User: Fold this.
Amino acid sequence: MNPFQKTIKRKSKICSSSLVKMNNRYMGIFVLGLPYALLHSGYSGLFLIILAAALCCYTGKILIACLYEENEDGQLIRVRDTYEDIANACCKRLSPKLGGIVVNVTQVMELIMTCILYLVVSGNLLSHSFPHVPVTEKTWSVIAFVTLLPCVFIKTLKTVSKLSQLCSLVHFIIILVVMTYCLTQIHQWSLAKFRLSIEFEDFLVSVGVIIFSYTSQIFLPTLEGNMKSPGEFSCMLNWTHFFACVLKTAFALTAFLTWGKETKEVITDNLPSFLETLVNLCLLAKALLSYPLPFFAATEIVYACISRENQSKYRSPLFSLGVRGSFLLLTLLMAMFIPHFAMLMGLTGSVTGAAMTFLLPSLFHLKLKLKKLSFLEKCADISVFTLGFLCSLAGIVCSIKGLLEVFGGV
Assistant:
């Protein structure tokens, strides 16, 4: 168990608030890209939001099932604590630490890409909030980055938690404002705005965006382990995915029906100027307050892996500061290099999102529980794995191709 996961386990006691916290995770800032996903996926996008919720709920349950084994009395005992432990158990014949390395690399990639997305969207929001200021979007991203420099001094999850708590209130206010405005434009709604024919490549990028809006599997083992009643985890997961699906569908649908073909990558860019600036500044605050959590998690995982051998030089405060500083700079450089919110979100969802949400949970479940699974359960795991692999492969190709076209590489 890495220090980040130990800190969560020590600091958090999740009980009845689990439902709210999980919904906050699912209804993050990246839900703002869903209307744009509908633009490129048409009616199928609505089906995808529902299907993704059902599949993510299923893989969340089988991932937690991998934490348990039956004892001699047939009782389920929790023998593993983290995603990394599950991966190591599956790959122990090949290498005791191979699975954990794969999972940690994938986790760090997803967390760092999330940080990059926060910087990209911050630059976008500032650019559209102050259009008359002669500053480029990339420069605005640098300005946002400067406000995040204190992140290198964050040493505990307690500080991160306090910042994250502010995000929930701000986020629901933003969603409420956007949906209220959309409802005032209901007279303009028309189902004719949905595309009957879709471009296959655009559709696959949309798949990545939708998948990324649901990714949370890396937090589930720790979440379940800290619940006062772990037996209620399955019920909690059902309700969180149900509410997330309803809210995401309602938000994406109302926003898309309001703007149709004019729907932009970040939906707040479509708002009239008197609302856009206010909402964008609220979103900016949310993005900057959200950044420390994935950043802290990623740096703690990397720092733990490097210093695992108890080498004193890797446990010095200066080295820890260097790791955090390097990661902070990496997120800025990547944000400057790929300043396209929807495409970057789609690529992240296709690579790490699909791997952590579909591929690895179904593969691990088959590996650890094969002899105890029914025929239908085996078919379900194989189907999820196959679907995840195909979507991931196609999404990666199309997202990269789209980015290359944007930069004039093709």
